[in-house]
Write a structure and sequence with these properties.
- It is a single chain.
- By secondary structure, the chain is an alpha+beta fold.
- Helix content is 24%, strand content 35%.
- The protein has one domain.
- The longest helix is centred in the N-terminal third of the chain and has 16 residues.
């Protein structure tokens, strides 16, 4: 766990994480993140988000910019889990696990 977060109460850590995630991911989500969707264990190096609905237009804009010949119509994630190896950061990979990824795509016109 990073030194700066050691003395913070768990509720404050969760709210700070939700705030940061909302800033970064908010444009790509249909609804604002709720604390109930967030699972956080900074000491263990894991964080998870559950039941996310993607904002198709925002994600599709990224796909179009990358030249992907498919258009996203709708999408969602059952869960996203990130594992950060604090003690070996830089030498061990940060792991991202997606569960129940659902994408409805069609050919781009």
């Amino acid at each position: 766990m990073p030194r700066w977060a050691r003395g913070w109460p768990e509720a404050l850590k969760a709210r700070a994480a939700r705030y940061a995630l909302q800033l970064w991911l908010g444009p790509f989500l249909e609804e604002p993140l709720r604390l109930e969707q967030l699972g956080l264990d900074l000491r263990g190096g894991t964080g998870s988000l559950r039941e996310l609905r993607l904002r198709a237009a925002a994600v599709d804009e990224l796909l179009a910019g990358a030249g992907v010949p498919l258009e996203l119509r709708e999408g969602g994630l059952g869960a996203v889990t990130v594992t950060v190896p604090w003690a070996q950061l830089g030498s061990e990979p940060v792991r991202l696990r997606l569960q129940r990824l659902r994408l409805v795509l069609r050919p781009r016109e």
